[in-house]
Request: fold
Amino acid sequence: MPSTENLKASVFDPIIDEETKACIVNSLWGLDSGSSHHCVPKTASNYGSYFNYYMEQCDTAGHDNRRYLSVRTHQDVVDIVNHIKTNINRDDLSQVLKAKWPHPDPRSASAQIDGSIDLAARLLLMIDVGDLKHGFRSGNRLIWDGGSLKSLVHSHYNTAQSLHTEHVRLEKIFNARNLVRIGGFKIEWTNNLADHLRILNDDEKKVAIFSNFSFLKVQENSPMFPDGLIDETLRTLALLLPRSDVETRKWYRKVSNKFLLDPQATQCNSLRLMDRHIDRFHFWRDRIVVLKEMFDEAEPRTLLQWWSDRRNVVQWYTFWVAGIVLVLTFVFGLIQCIEGGIQVYFAFPKSPA
Reply:
């Protein structure tokens, strides 16, 4: 059975073995609370997409000769996370880490400590926290400059929802596959929970979706997030990636293989009729309203979109009946032209040989 000695491996190693992954998962989220000395490898098997994110974040934060990072091992990350979970404020945490990692240049030490704290926060929450020295980030990010990380996250999500929702209906046709094939949307699969359901570009109709189901499931009882946020996020996945829709599951399987997403995202419990009401959503309600309105206003532009778009059944039948009539008219007209040409050909007197 693997020991927590695995956590002493470098965060900059390009490959993390399964035993080390298990130790990281167990240490960050307490999945192996029954054992303080060993980690269970099988707990890492469902977190492939998370560890793609983990390694990307470590690599980005350690860029440029690691001048902006004090952490060197997975144990260093876990130690910072354990402090964060005590609701320690940012300044006190900085002092603790400066005492642990002394540095001859105080200015360099501050930058490295700040980078290490922000990295640990990102790995714990899958939310962009802090200002990355390297790496492009255009989405929402949280700046943690004081107080506890928990208070920052809670204040960020506990904001009043303001959009009018009286006529918003979340029909079964409203799912991620149909956003693409009917609405003409582009989906950016994000690892930043703060960007979930955010419209990234109005003109291109680009929307961000956070689909890391495995991460969300293990956070259901986490005090770091406001009560109900994780459950509601899972319900948005049930809305957009319904388990009962076979075609959506097939579509997502192809997408997840292409972009290395969490393959379990279509395993959310199916929504009941009452759960599809917009008022059942609080944290993500405004973003759902905007997305649904854009979807409803989207007009089909291609034959495939016209064929797939059944939002207005009368319009759909009218379009295709008119199309069939047009095609038949053209076909019969062409046949008549050919018959007329043949008749003229045979009626024309032949010259003697």
In short: The beta strands are 186-190, 199-201, 206-210.
